[in-house]
Amino acid sequence: MTQNIQFIPGSDACIEGALYAGCDFFAGYPITPSSEVAEGLAAALPKRGGKFIQMEDEIASMACIIGAALAGKKVMTATSGPGFSLKQEGIGYACMTETPCVIANIQRGGPSTGNPTHVAQGDTMQARWGSHGDHSIIAMTASNLQDVFKITVEAFNLAEQYRTPVILMFDEATQHLREKVVIPEPGEIEVIDRIRTKIPVGEQYYPYLTDANGQRPMSDFGAGHRFHVTGLHHNIMGFPDVSPANVDALIHHLVDKIENKANELARYKEYYMDDADYVIVAYGTTTRSAIQAAEDYRNQLGIKVGVLELQTVWPFAGDIVREKCANAKAVIVAEMNMGQIVNEVKRVVAQPEKVFFSNRVDNQIIKPSDIKAALRMITGKGV
Amino acid sequence: MESTGIVFTASGGQGVITTAIILARSATIFEGKNAIQSQSYGAAARGGATRADILISAGNIYYPKVEEADVFVALMQEGYNKYASLIKPGGLMIIDPRYVKPGNINAKILALPMYDTVVKEIGKPIVYSVCVLGALIGATGICKPESAISVIQDAMPAAFFDMNKKALEIGITLGKEAA
User: Which of A220, A355, B84, B127 has the highest CB neighbour count under 10 A?
Assistant: First the structure.
Protein backbone atom coordinates (compact mmCIF):
# COMPACT_ATOMS: atom_id res chain seq x y z
CA MET A 1 0.00 0.00 0.00
CA THR A 2 1.36 3.43 -0.89
CA GLN A 3 1.88 5.73 2.04
CA ASN A 4 -0.20 8.87 2.31
CA ILE A 5 2.70 11.32 2.30
CA GLN A 6 1.78 14.97 2.51
CA PHE A 7 3.78 18.18 2.55
CA ILE A 8 1.63 20.41 4.72
CA PRO A 9 1.79 23.20 7.29
CA GLY A 10 1.55 22.48 11.01
CA SER A 11 -2.02 23.73 11.15
CA ASP A 12 -2.99 21.01 8.66
CA ALA A 13 -1.07 18.40 10.64
CA CYS A 14 -3.14 19.40 13.69
CA ILE A 15 -6.37 19.26 11.65
CA GLU A 16 -5.50 15.85 10.21
CA GLY A 17 -4.74 14.59 13.72
CA ALA A 18 -8.06 15.89 15.02
CA LEU A 19 -9.98 14.22 12.20
CA TYR A 20 -8.05 10.95 12.65
CA ALA A 21 -8.98 11.01 16.35
CA GLY A 22 -12.65 11.40 15.45
CA CYS A 23 -13.22 15.08 16.22
CA ASP A 24 -16.75 15.84 15.07
CA PHE A 25 -17.42 19.24 16.61
CA PHE A 26 -15.43 22.48 16.54
CA ALA A 27 -16.48 25.87 17.86
CA GLY A 28 -14.11 28.79 17.75
CA TYR A 29 -13.43 32.41 17.09
CA PRO A 30 -10.70 33.41 14.64
CA ILE A 31 -7.45 34.65 16.13
CA THR A 32 -3.94 34.79 14.68
CA PRO A 33 -2.00 32.50 14.48
CA SER A 34 -4.59 29.79 15.16
CA SER A 35 -7.19 30.71 12.53
CA GLU A 36 -5.91 28.20 9.97
CA VAL A 37 -7.01 25.36 12.25
CA ALA A 38 -10.55 26.75 12.35
CA GLU A 39 -10.51 27.42 8.61
CA GLY A 40 -9.44 23.88 7.78
CA LEU A 41 -11.96 22.25 10.11
CA ALA A 42 -14.72 24.52 8.76
CA ALA A 43 -14.05 22.94 5.38
CA ALA A 44 -13.49 19.38 6.58
CA LEU A 45 -16.06 18.73 9.32
CA PRO A 46 -19.33 19.27 7.42
CA LYS A 47 -18.14 16.86 4.70
CA ARG A 48 -18.00 14.04 7.23
CA GLY A 49 -21.14 14.87 9.13
CA GLY A 50 -19.41 16.97 11.79
CA LYS A 51 -20.29 20.45 12.92
CA PHE A 52 -18.33 23.68 12.78
CA ILE A 53 -19.60 26.81 14.48
CA GLN A 54 -17.95 30.20 14.44
CA MET A 55 -19.13 31.67 17.71
CA GLU A 56 -19.50 35.29 18.71
CA ASP A 57 -16.38 35.26 20.89
CA GLU A 58 -13.73 33.16 22.62
CA ILE A 59 -15.71 32.58 25.81
CA ALA A 60 -18.79 31.42 23.92
CA SER A 61 -16.76 29.03 21.78
CA MET A 62 -15.29 27.42 24.91
CA ALA A 63 -18.76 27.08 26.42
CA CYS A 64 -20.06 25.70 23.13
CA ILE A 65 -17.57 22.83 22.95
CA ILE A 66 -18.30 21.91 26.56
CA GLY A 67 -21.99 21.63 25.73
CA ALA A 68 -21.30 19.57 22.63
CA ALA A 69 -18.91 17.29 24.55
CA LEU A 70 -21.54 16.64 27.21
CA ALA A 71 -23.94 15.77 24.41
CA GLY A 72 -21.49 13.11 23.22
CA LYS A 73 -19.27 14.79 20.62
CA LYS A 74 -15.47 14.74 20.37
CA VAL A 75 -14.77 18.43 20.51
CA MET A 76 -12.06 20.96 19.89
CA THR A 77 -11.44 24.67 19.80
CA ALA A 78 -8.35 26.63 18.76
CA THR A 79 -7.11 29.94 20.01
CA SER A 80 -4.07 32.00 20.89
CA GLY A 81 -2.81 34.50 23.48
CA PRO A 82 -5.71 36.79 24.46
CA GLY A 83 -8.23 34.13 23.43
CA PHE A 84 -6.55 31.59 25.70
CA SER A 85 -6.91 34.06 28.59
CA LEU A 86 -10.60 34.52 27.85
CA LYS A 87 -11.16 30.77 27.74
CA GLN A 88 -9.73 30.12 31.20
CA GLU A 89 -13.04 30.30 33.05
CA GLY A 90 -14.52 27.78 30.64
CA ILE A 91 -11.47 25.55 30.96
CA GLY A 92 -11.98 25.55 34.73
CA TYR A 93 -15.62 24.65 34.21
CA ALA A 94 -14.58 21.74 31.98
CA CYS A 95 -12.12 20.58 34.67
CA MET A 96 -14.79 20.80 37.35
CA THR A 97 -17.49 19.11 35.30
CA GLU A 98 -14.98 16.54 33.95
CA THR A 99 -15.89 17.27 30.37
CA PRO A 100 -13.54 15.90 27.68
CA CYS A 101 -12.36 18.64 25.30
CA VAL A 102 -9.26 19.70 23.38
CA ILE A 103 -8.09 23.31 23.34
CA ALA A 104 -5.31 24.16 20.87
CA ASN A 105 -3.42 27.23 22.05
CA ILE A 106 -1.20 28.24 19.16
CA GLN A 107 1.21 30.39 21.13
CA ARG A 108 2.18 33.89 20.03
CA GLY A 109 3.96 36.78 21.70
CA GLY A 110 2.36 38.21 24.85
CA PRO A 111 1.28 39.51 27.32
CA SER A 112 -1.96 41.12 26.13
CA THR A 113 -2.28 41.32 22.34
CA GLY A 114 1.52 41.19 22.20
CA ASN A 115 2.77 39.97 18.85
CA PRO A 116 0.08 38.07 16.95
CA THR A 117 2.26 36.81 14.11
CA HIS A 118 5.35 35.54 15.91
CA VAL A 119 6.40 32.71 18.12
CA ALA A 120 6.64 32.42 21.92
CA GLN A 121 6.22 29.88 24.72
CA GLY A 122 4.98 32.34 27.31
CA ASP A 123 1.77 30.45 28.11
CA THR A 124 3.36 27.34 29.64
CA MET A 125 2.39 28.22 33.20
CA GLN A 126 -0.94 29.66 32.11
CA ALA A 127 -1.87 26.26 30.70
CA ARG A 128 -1.25 24.81 34.16
CA TRP A 129 -2.61 27.54 36.39
CA GLY A 130 -4.59 29.89 34.15
CA SER A 131 -7.90 28.90 35.65
CA HIS A 132 -8.57 29.54 39.31
CA GLY A 133 -8.85 26.97 42.03
CA ASP A 134 -7.07 23.70 42.65
CA HIS A 135 -7.26 21.53 39.59
CA SER A 136 -4.97 19.60 37.31
CA ILE A 137 -4.73 19.54 33.55
CA ILE A 138 -3.02 17.78 30.67
CA ALA A 139 -0.99 19.96 28.27
CA MET A 140 1.00 18.62 25.34
CA THR A 141 3.15 19.89 22.51
CA ALA A 142 5.43 18.74 19.69
CA SER A 143 8.40 19.98 17.68
CA ASN A 144 7.89 18.43 14.25
CA LEU A 145 4.78 18.02 12.18
CA GLN A 146 4.65 14.22 12.30
CA ASP A 147 4.49 14.59 16.07
CA VAL A 148 1.97 17.44 15.85
CA PHE A 149 -0.29 14.92 14.14
CA LYS A 150 0.39 12.17 16.68
CA ILE A 151 0.13 14.37 19.76
CA THR A 152 -3.16 15.82 18.52
CA VAL A 153 -4.58 12.28 18.30
CA GLU A 154 -3.25 11.57 21.80
CA ALA A 155 -4.82 14.76 23.15
CA PHE A 156 -8.26 13.57 22.08
CA ASN A 157 -7.59 10.10 23.46
CA LEU A 158 -6.51 11.42 26.85
CA ALA A 159 -9.35 13.94 27.05
CA GLU A 160 -11.88 11.15 26.54
CA GLN A 161 -10.06 8.67 28.76
CA TYR A 162 -9.47 11.03 31.69
CA ARG A 163 -12.59 13.19 31.29
CA THR A 164 -10.55 16.38 31.23
CA PRO A 165 -9.64 19.32 29.04
CA VAL A 166 -6.36 18.74 27.22
CA ILE A 167 -4.41 21.77 26.04
CA LEU A 168 -2.32 21.55 22.86
CA MET A 169 0.52 24.03 23.36
CA PHE A 170 1.69 24.40 19.80
CA ASP A 171 3.18 27.67 18.55
CA GLU A 172 3.26 29.99 15.57
CA ALA A 173 6.47 28.50 14.19
CA THR A 174 5.30 24.88 13.98
CA GLN A 175 1.89 25.95 12.69
CA HIS A 176 3.28 27.85 9.73
CA LEU A 177 6.21 25.79 8.59
CA ARG A 178 5.62 23.03 6.09
CA GLU A 179 7.25 19.63 6.18
CA LYS A 180 6.56 16.02 5.35
CA VAL A 181 3.86 14.20 7.26
CA VAL A 182 2.91 10.58 6.67
CA ILE A 183 -0.76 10.24 7.52
CA PRO A 184 -1.19 6.86 9.21
CA GLU A 185 -3.79 4.38 8.03
CA PRO A 186 -6.84 3.98 10.27
CA GLY A 187 -5.88 1.68 13.13
CA GLU A 188 -2.17 2.47 13.05
CA ILE A 189 -2.59 4.84 15.99
CA GLU A 190 -5.12 3.80 18.59
CA VAL A 191 -8.20 6.00 18.87
CA ILE A 192 -9.88 5.92 22.26
CA ASP A 193 -13.51 6.77 22.85
CA ARG A 194 -15.02 7.72 26.17
CA ILE A 195 -16.58 5.03 28.32
CA ARG A 196 -20.34 5.35 28.26
CA THR A 197 -22.61 4.04 30.97
CA LYS A 198 -24.31 0.69 30.57
CA ILE A 199 -27.09 1.68 32.93
CA PRO A 200 -30.39 1.50 31.01
CA VAL A 201 -32.31 4.70 30.44
CA GLY A 202 -34.94 5.05 33.14
CA GLU A 203 -32.69 3.71 35.88
CA GLN A 204 -30.70 5.95 38.21
CA TYR A 205 -27.40 7.08 36.63
CA TYR A 206 -24.72 8.89 38.65
CA PRO A 207 -22.50 11.01 36.36
CA TYR A 208 -19.74 11.42 38.97
CA LEU A 209 -19.66 7.98 40.55
CA THR A 210 -16.38 6.12 40.15
CA ASP A 211 -16.98 2.50 39.14
CA ALA A 212 -15.00 -0.60 40.09
CA ASN A 213 -12.53 0.08 37.25
CA GLY A 214 -11.81 3.57 38.49
CA GLN A 215 -13.83 5.11 35.63
CA ARG A 216 -16.70 7.54 35.59
CA PRO A 217 -18.76 6.40 32.58
CA MET A 218 -20.58 9.19 30.80
CA SER A 219 -24.05 9.47 29.35
CA ASP A 220 -24.74 11.70 26.36
CA PHE A 221 -26.70 14.63 27.72
CA GLY A 222 -30.23 14.55 26.35
CA ALA A 223 -30.07 10.88 25.41
CA GLY A 224 -32.28 9.71 28.26
CA HIS A 225 -30.55 9.82 31.63
CA ARG A 226 -31.45 12.77 33.83
CA PHE A 227 -28.47 14.36 35.55
CA HIS A 228 -27.16 17.74 36.60
CA VAL A 229 -23.97 19.54 35.56
CA THR A 230 -22.63 22.47 37.56
CA GLY A 231 -19.42 24.37 38.18
CA LEU A 232 -20.25 24.37 41.89
CA HIS A 233 -18.76 21.70 44.08
CA HIS A 234 -21.05 18.76 43.45
CA ASN A 235 -21.83 15.23 44.55
CA ILE A 236 -22.05 12.02 42.53
CA MET A 237 -25.41 13.09 41.11
CA GLY A 238 -23.94 16.38 39.91
CA PHE A 239 -25.95 18.49 42.34
CA PRO A 240 -24.30 21.25 44.41
CA ASP A 241 -22.85 19.94 47.66
CA VAL A 242 -20.43 22.05 49.66
CA SER A 243 -20.18 19.78 52.67
CA PRO A 244 -16.50 19.61 53.70
CA ALA A 245 -16.17 15.88 53.17
CA ASN A 246 -17.66 16.08 49.69
CA VAL A 247 -15.52 19.07 48.66
CA ASP A 248 -12.40 17.40 49.99
CA ALA A 249 -13.08 14.22 48.02
CA LEU A 250 -13.91 16.18 44.87
CA ILE A 251 -10.74 18.29 44.87
CA HIS A 252 -8.58 15.27 45.61
CA HIS A 253 -10.24 13.42 42.75
CA LEU A 254 -9.78 16.26 40.24
CA VAL A 255 -6.10 16.62 41.06
CA ASP A 256 -5.19 13.00 41.75
CA LYS A 257 -6.78 11.54 38.62
CA ILE A 258 -4.10 13.36 36.62
CA GLU A 259 -1.16 13.98 38.97
CA ASN A 260 -1.05 10.37 40.16
CA LYS A 261 -0.77 9.28 36.52
CA ALA A 262 2.06 11.68 35.60
CA ASN A 263 4.37 8.86 34.55
CA GLU A 264 1.70 7.16 32.43
CA LEU A 265 0.78 10.45 30.82
CA ALA A 266 4.38 11.41 30.08
CA ARG A 267 5.13 11.49 26.38
CA TYR A 268 8.76 12.36 25.74
CA LYS A 269 11.53 11.73 23.24
CA GLU A 270 15.24 11.28 23.73
CA TYR A 271 17.95 12.34 21.31
CA TYR A 272 21.54 11.22 21.97
CA MET A 273 20.65 10.63 25.62
CA ASP A 274 22.30 7.20 26.12
CA ASP A 275 25.73 8.56 26.99
CA ALA A 276 24.95 12.26 27.45
CA ASP A 277 27.14 14.25 29.84
CA TYR A 278 25.07 17.35 29.24
CA VAL A 279 21.28 17.32 28.86
CA ILE A 280 19.16 19.94 27.15
CA VAL A 281 15.53 19.82 28.27
CA ALA A 282 13.26 21.36 25.66
CA TYR A 283 9.68 21.27 24.39
CA GLY A 284 7.90 22.44 21.25
CA THR A 285 9.81 24.33 18.56
CA THR A 286 12.72 24.89 20.95
CA THR A 287 13.56 21.20 20.66
CA ARG A 288 14.57 21.61 17.02
CA SER A 289 17.38 24.00 17.87
CA ALA A 290 18.37 21.91 20.89
CA ILE A 291 18.92 18.83 18.71
CA GLN A 292 21.00 20.86 16.25
CA ALA A 293 23.13 22.22 19.11
CA ALA A 294 23.62 18.69 20.48
CA GLU A 295 24.67 17.32 17.08
CA ASP A 296 27.11 20.20 16.53
CA TYR A 297 28.75 19.64 19.93
CA ARG A 298 29.05 15.90 19.35
CA ASN A 299 30.27 16.11 15.78
CA GLN A 300 32.65 19.02 16.13
CA LEU A 301 33.93 18.70 19.70
CA GLY A 302 33.10 15.16 20.76
CA ILE A 303 31.25 16.56 23.76
CA LYS A 304 28.32 14.33 24.59
CA VAL A 305 25.20 16.46 24.62
CA GLY A 306 21.72 14.93 24.61
CA VAL A 307 18.20 16.28 24.36
CA LEU A 308 15.16 15.34 26.42
CA GLU A 309 12.04 16.56 24.63
CA LEU A 310 8.94 16.88 26.78
CA GLN A 311 5.80 16.32 24.75
CA THR A 312 3.62 16.13 27.83
CA VAL A 313 4.30 19.45 29.54
CA TRP A 314 1.60 19.02 32.21
CA PRO A 315 1.42 17.07 34.39
CA PHE A 316 5.15 17.67 34.67
CA ALA A 317 7.06 14.40 34.22
CA GLY A 318 9.16 14.97 37.33
CA ASP A 319 10.24 11.35 37.88
CA ILE A 320 11.37 11.01 34.28
CA VAL A 321 13.23 14.32 34.20
CA ARG A 322 14.98 13.44 37.47
CA GLU A 323 16.01 10.03 36.17
CA LYS A 324 17.17 11.23 32.75
CA CYS A 325 19.18 14.10 34.22
CA ALA A 326 20.68 12.06 37.07
CA ASN A 327 24.09 11.54 35.44
CA ALA A 328 24.34 14.90 33.71
CA LYS A 329 27.20 17.24 34.55
CA ALA A 330 24.83 20.06 33.73
CA VAL A 331 21.27 20.51 32.48
CA ILE A 332 20.19 23.33 30.19
CA VAL A 333 16.51 24.17 29.93
CA ALA A 334 15.68 25.97 26.69
CA GLU A 335 12.45 27.93 26.43
CA MET A 336 11.06 30.89 24.54
CA ASN A 337 9.95 32.66 27.71
CA MET A 338 11.47 34.21 30.82
CA GLY A 339 11.69 30.87 32.62
CA GLN A 340 8.67 28.64 33.22
CA ILE A 341 9.68 24.97 32.95
CA VAL A 342 13.22 25.67 34.18
CA ASN A 343 11.96 25.99 37.74
CA GLU A 344 10.06 22.73 37.47
CA VAL A 345 13.28 21.04 36.36
CA LYS A 346 15.21 22.64 39.26
CA ARG A 347 12.51 21.43 41.63
CA VAL A 348 12.91 17.77 40.66
CA VAL A 349 16.61 17.22 39.97
CA ALA A 350 19.04 16.21 42.70
CA GLN A 351 21.34 19.20 42.14
CA PRO A 352 19.35 22.27 41.09
CA GLU A 353 22.53 24.36 40.99
CA LYS A 354 23.53 22.42 37.88
CA VAL A 355 20.46 23.58 35.96
CA PHE A 356 21.04 26.44 33.52
CA PHE A 357 18.67 28.42 31.36
CA SER A 358 18.77 29.40 27.70
CA ASN A 359 15.98 31.55 26.40
CA ARG A 360 14.78 34.01 23.81
CA VAL A 361 11.84 36.40 24.22
CA ASP A 362 12.08 38.57 21.09
CA ASN A 363 9.46 36.44 19.33
CA GLN A 364 12.11 34.84 17.12
CA ILE A 365 12.69 31.10 17.14
CA ILE A 366 15.47 30.27 19.58
CA LYS A 367 18.55 29.46 17.50
CA PRO A 368 21.01 26.60 17.85
CA SER A 369 23.61 29.33 18.46
CA ASP A 370 21.59 30.62 21.45
CA ILE A 371 21.74 27.19 23.09
CA LYS A 372 25.36 26.71 22.05
CA ALA A 373 26.21 29.96 23.81
CA ALA A 374 24.99 28.38 27.04
CA LEU A 375 26.93 25.18 26.30
CA ARG A 376 30.07 27.22 25.68
CA MET A 377 29.67 28.92 29.04
CA ILE A 378 29.20 25.60 30.83
CA THR A 379 31.75 23.41 29.01
CA GLY A 380 34.29 26.12 28.29
CA LYS A 381 34.33 25.02 24.65
CA GLY A 382 32.34 26.33 21.75
CA VAL A 383 31.37 25.58 18.16
CA MET B 1 24.09 16.12 7.17
CA GLU B 2 24.52 19.39 5.33
CA SER B 3 21.36 20.99 4.05
CA THR B 4 20.90 23.41 1.18
CA GLY B 5 19.31 26.70 2.17
CA ILE B 6 17.37 28.75 -0.37
CA VAL B 7 15.80 32.15 0.28
CA PHE B 8 13.29 33.75 -2.07
CA THR B 9 12.32 37.36 -1.72
CA ALA B 10 9.72 39.13 -3.81
CA SER B 11 6.79 41.47 -3.64
CA GLY B 12 3.77 39.92 -1.89
CA GLY B 13 1.55 38.49 -4.62
CA GLN B 14 4.31 37.66 -7.11
CA GLY B 15 3.92 34.02 -6.18
CA VAL B 16 7.25 33.05 -4.67
CA ILE B 17 5.68 31.31 -1.70
CA THR B 18 3.91 29.01 -4.15
CA THR B 19 7.23 28.55 -5.96
CA ALA B 20 8.90 27.62 -2.70
CA ILE B 21 6.17 25.14 -1.83
CA ILE B 22 6.39 23.49 -5.27
CA LEU B 23 10.14 23.08 -4.89
CA ALA B 24 9.94 21.70 -1.35
CA ARG B 25 7.12 19.34 -2.32
CA SER B 26 9.16 18.11 -5.31
CA ALA B 27 12.11 17.33 -3.07
CA THR B 28 10.10 15.54 -0.36
CA ILE B 29 7.35 13.71 -2.18
CA PHE B 30 9.09 12.88 -5.47
CA GLU B 31 12.75 12.65 -4.51
CA GLY B 32 12.62 11.22 -1.00
CA LYS B 33 14.55 14.07 0.59
CA ASN B 34 13.58 16.13 3.59
CA ALA B 35 12.52 19.73 3.16
CA ILE B 36 11.15 22.49 5.32
CA GLN B 37 9.44 25.53 3.93
CA SER B 38 8.41 28.63 5.84
CA GLN B 39 7.63 32.21 4.98
CA SER B 40 7.53 35.66 6.47
CA TYR B 41 4.26 36.02 8.32
CA GLY B 42 3.00 39.39 9.38
CA ALA B 43 0.46 42.15 8.92
CA ALA B 44 1.94 43.33 5.61
CA ALA B 45 1.63 40.93 2.71
CA ARG B 46 0.48 42.05 -0.73
CA GLY B 47 2.94 44.53 -2.19
CA GLY B 48 5.37 44.39 0.74
CA ALA B 49 8.65 42.49 0.75
CA THR B 50 7.93 38.85 1.38
CA ARG B 51 10.40 36.07 2.07
CA ALA B 52 10.19 32.31 1.71
CA ASP B 53 12.81 29.95 3.17
CA ILE B 54 13.48 26.39 2.10
CA LEU B 55 15.91 23.89 3.52
CA ILE B 56 16.51 20.67 1.60
CA SER B 57 18.61 17.79 2.91
CA ALA B 58 19.10 14.07 2.58
CA GLY B 59 19.26 14.04 6.40
CA ASN B 60 17.20 15.57 9.18
CA ILE B 61 16.52 19.30 9.32
CA TYR B 62 16.04 20.87 12.71
CA TYR B 63 16.22 24.69 12.91
CA PRO B 64 13.62 25.66 10.30
CA LYS B 65 14.94 29.01 9.07
CA VAL B 66 17.77 29.60 6.62
CA GLU B 67 20.66 31.22 8.48
CA GLU B 68 23.05 31.21 5.52
CA ALA B 69 21.57 30.93 2.04
CA ASP B 70 23.38 28.79 -0.52
CA VAL B 71 21.02 30.27 -3.08
CA PHE B 72 19.24 33.61 -2.87
CA VAL B 73 16.53 34.52 -5.37
CA ALA B 74 15.51 38.19 -5.43
CA LEU B 75 12.63 39.59 -7.46
CA MET B 76 12.27 42.87 -5.59
CA GLN B 77 14.72 45.58 -4.61
CA GLU B 78 13.27 46.11 -1.12
CA GLY B 79 13.53 42.40 -0.37
CA TYR B 80 17.06 42.29 -1.76
CA ASN B 81 18.11 45.22 0.41
CA LYS B 82 16.52 43.65 3.48
CA TYR B 83 17.70 40.06 3.17
CA ALA B 84 20.68 39.85 0.77
CA SER B 85 23.09 39.68 3.70
CA LEU B 86 21.78 36.16 4.34
CA ILE B 87 23.73 34.83 1.37
CA LYS B 88 26.69 32.60 2.09
CA PRO B 89 29.99 34.09 0.88
CA GLY B 90 30.43 32.85 -2.69
CA GLY B 91 26.80 31.69 -2.87
CA LEU B 92 24.52 31.90 -5.86
CA MET B 93 22.36 35.00 -6.32
CA ILE B 94 19.60 34.84 -8.93
CA ILE B 95 17.92 38.15 -9.71
CA ASP B 96 15.56 39.54 -12.30
CA PRO B 97 17.23 42.73 -13.60
CA ARG B 98 13.80 44.18 -14.30
CA TYR B 99 13.27 44.53 -10.55
CA VAL B 100 16.64 44.27 -8.80
CA LYS B 101 19.97 46.06 -9.13
CA PRO B 102 22.40 44.05 -7.04
CA GLY B 103 24.99 45.83 -4.95
CA ASN B 104 28.60 44.87 -4.36
CA ILE B 105 28.16 41.41 -2.85
CA ASN B 106 30.35 38.35 -2.44
CA ALA B 107 28.24 36.01 -4.55
CA LYS B 108 27.92 34.65 -8.05
CA ILE B 109 25.19 36.77 -9.58
CA LEU B 110 22.94 35.48 -12.35
CA ALA B 111 20.84 38.28 -13.77
CA LEU B 112 18.09 36.51 -15.71
CA PRO B 113 15.40 38.46 -17.59
CA MET B 114 12.71 36.06 -16.43
CA TYR B 115 9.76 38.44 -16.42
CA ASP B 116 10.47 39.89 -19.85
CA THR B 117 11.00 36.43 -21.37
CA VAL B 118 7.74 35.09 -19.90
CA VAL B 119 5.79 38.07 -21.19
CA LYS B 120 7.40 37.78 -24.63
CA GLU B 121 7.05 34.00 -25.01
CA ILE B 122 3.82 33.29 -23.15
CA GLY B 123 2.21 36.68 -22.69
CA LYS B 124 0.85 35.82 -19.21
CA PRO B 125 2.75 37.20 -16.18
CA ILE B 126 0.81 34.81 -13.91
CA VAL B 127 3.28 32.01 -14.70
CA TYR B 128 6.27 34.20 -13.81
CA SER B 129 6.90 32.46 -10.50
CA VAL B 130 7.02 29.05 -12.19
CA CYS B 131 9.60 30.41 -14.62
CA VAL B 132 11.64 31.55 -11.60
CA LEU B 133 11.49 28.01 -10.23
CA GLY B 134 12.67 26.73 -13.63
CA ALA B 135 15.61 29.15 -13.59
CA LEU B 136 16.58 27.95 -10.12
CA ILE B 137 16.39 24.30 -11.21
CA GLY B 138 18.33 25.06 -14.43
CA ALA B 139 21.07 26.90 -12.60
CA THR B 140 21.46 24.53 -9.64
CA GLY B 141 19.94 21.13 -10.43
CA ILE B 142 18.40 21.28 -6.94
CA CYS B 143 15.64 18.94 -8.11
CA LYS B 144 14.71 17.09 -11.26
CA PRO B 145 12.49 19.02 -13.69
CA GLU B 146 10.14 16.01 -13.80
CA SER B 147 9.54 16.23 -10.06
CA ALA B 148 8.52 19.87 -10.34
CA ILE B 149 6.30 19.05 -13.31
CA SER B 150 4.59 16.30 -11.30
CA VAL B 151 3.88 18.73 -8.45
CA ILE B 152 2.52 21.34 -10.85
CA GLN B 153 0.33 18.70 -12.44
CA ASP B 154 -1.06 17.72 -9.03
CA ALA B 155 -1.56 21.23 -7.75
CA MET B 156 -2.80 23.27 -10.70
CA PRO B 157 -5.93 23.11 -12.83
CA ALA B 158 -5.38 21.04 -15.98
CA ALA B 159 -6.28 23.96 -18.23
CA PHE B 160 -3.21 25.86 -17.03
CA PHE B 161 -0.79 22.95 -17.05
CA ASP B 162 0.72 23.49 -20.51
CA MET B 163 1.31 27.17 -19.82
CA ASN B 164 3.02 26.41 -16.50
CA LYS B 165 5.12 23.65 -18.02
CA LYS B 166 6.25 26.01 -20.76
CA ALA B 167 7.13 28.67 -18.19
CA LEU B 168 9.15 26.10 -16.22
CA GLU B 169 11.02 25.08 -19.37
CA ILE B 170 11.78 28.70 -20.29
CA GLY B 171 13.20 29.20 -16.82
CA ILE B 172 15.29 26.01 -16.99
CA THR B 173 16.83 27.15 -20.28
CA LEU B 174 17.60 30.62 -18.90
CA GLY B 175 19.16 29.16 -15.79
CA LYS B 176 21.22 26.51 -17.59
CA GLU B 177 22.60 28.93 -20.16
CA ALA B 178 23.64 31.47 -17.55
CA ALA B 179 25.17 28.97 -15.14
Answer: B127
Q: Enumerate the domain spans of chain A.
A: 4-183, 266-379
Domain containing residue B94: CATH number: 3.40.920.10
Dihedral (C-alpha) A144, A145, A151, A153: value to the nearest 10 degrees?
Answer: -170
Residue A52: closest CA among A15, A86, A8: A15
Note the pLDDT tens digit of each residue in B11-37: 888 888 999 999 999 999 999 999 999
- pTM listed for this prediction: 0.96
Provide the residue range defining the domain that includes B109.
Answer: 4-178
CB contact under 8 A, B21 and A7: yes
CB B112 within 8 A of CB B94: yes
Asked if A172 reaches chain B (Cβ–Cβ under 8 Å), the answer is yes
How many structural domains comprise chain B? 1
Give the nearest partner residue to B41 out of A117, A180, A367, using CB atoms: A117
Domain covering A266-379, topology: Rossmann fold (3.40.50)
CATH of domain A4-183: 3.40.50.970
Which of A118, A178, A367 lies closest to B63 in CB terms? A367
The tens digit of pLDDT for each residue in A186-197 reads 999 999 999 999
| Same fold across A4-183 and A266-379 | yes
CA dihedral B160, B162, B165, B171 (to 10 degrees): -90
Identity of the highest mean pLDDT range in B31-45, B46-60, B139-153: B139-153
Q: How far is B39 from chain A (nearest CA, A)?
A: 7
| Contact residues on chain A for B29, CB-CB shorter than 8 A | 5, 7, 180
CB within 8 Å: B64 and A5: no
